Amino acid sequence: MAMAPIAEGERWAYRKGSLPFEDVTIVKVVSQSGHRKVSVQFEDGPNAGETQWVGRPYLKVKWDERQAFVDREQRWANAKSGYWDVPLGLTCAAALVITETMDDALARDRDHGILQTNDAPLLRQLLQLTESQLFVEGSFDEQGVTYLPWPAMKAVAMAKCRLKPEAVLDAVERDVESWGDSAEEFGYYKPMSSRQVIELEEPWPEYETQKTAWDIVRGWCGESALARWSTLSRVRADNARLSEILGRALDALERAGDEHSANRLRKEAGRAFGKTPDWIKNLQKEQLQ
């Protein structure tokens, strides 16, 4: 959250760590930047009467707004209390499903365990969830946005896997490929060890966590959905290979100047697959993008 602007003469609530608020008056403001210190005079507490330069982040809120600030902190603490002991792989699994397959306005991983939604009733309707599954203890609204604790976030992710497993499994496969590409392109280096490369058989901890997340998501989708998706994936791969072969054949015919044979092959392939005559070229363009 962006820090509110401050002005000389205003009274603010100063707090360092978990200590109680102290009432301070702003004496001098050099800059609104959070990196610059502010001169304040302490009105109460152990430093009463003293003038000090303090870090801007310690000025939490205007003095007369401190109770609302504390109430907001408590709401967030209550919402977060249910996921401190949740395994990281599990929260990563839910975050993957929500981030990669759902619109941000409908569902968003707000704080790696807190679900944010701009339309909770629509979210519940689309995912066929009960009110008790979505509006769990610790849920709250703030400025037109609903925040839902970890049990609701998990329920949303699992419901998405149940209703749209193919789309979710596609997202998992993209994530698998992305991690694999990064590992192959950049490698992973042990700190302070002369950039010693760690082979993929010994992946870094984040990679292990992500692999756990993939397995969890696949489990949420179910064995039958995974089997259907695997079959569809193989068909897609076969079609891609076939289009590549046909594309190379067409290119060879066109380079040889045999436009008649190229057009005939294109039309026959289109009829065989129920596509328009230019389907191969269009598919090739999509693959290059």
Explain what this protein looks like in three dimensions:
- The chain is α+β, with helices and mostly antiparallel strands.
- The protein folds into 3 domains: 10-65; 81-192 and 201-221, no CATH class; 229-284.
- 53% of the residues lie in helices and 13% in strands.
- It contains 10 helices and 9 strands.
- A 5-stranded antiparallel β-sheet has the order 4-3-2-1-5, with no helix packed on it. Strands 6-7-9-8 form a 4-stranded antiparallel β-sheet.
- Strand 6 and strand 7 form a beta hairpin.
- Helix 2 (88-101) packs across helix 5.
- The chain starts with 10 loop residues before the first strand and ends with a helix.
- The relative contact order is 0.07.
Please state the average pLDDT score. 84
N to C succession of SSEs: EEEEEHHEEHHEEHHHHHH
Tell me the fraction of residues in β-strands, as a range.
5-15%
Number of strands: 9
Number of helices: 10
Profile the largest sheet: 5 strands, antiparallel
User: Tell me, what's the shape?
Assistant: elongated
Helicity level: 40-55%
Question: Ends: how far apart?
Answer: 37 Å
Rg, Cα atoms, Å: 28 Å
Spatial strand order of the main sheet:
4-3-2-1-5
Low-confidence parts, pLDDT < 50 over ≥5 residues?
189-194, 283-289
Question: How many domain modules?
Answer: 3
The secondary structure category is alpha+beta
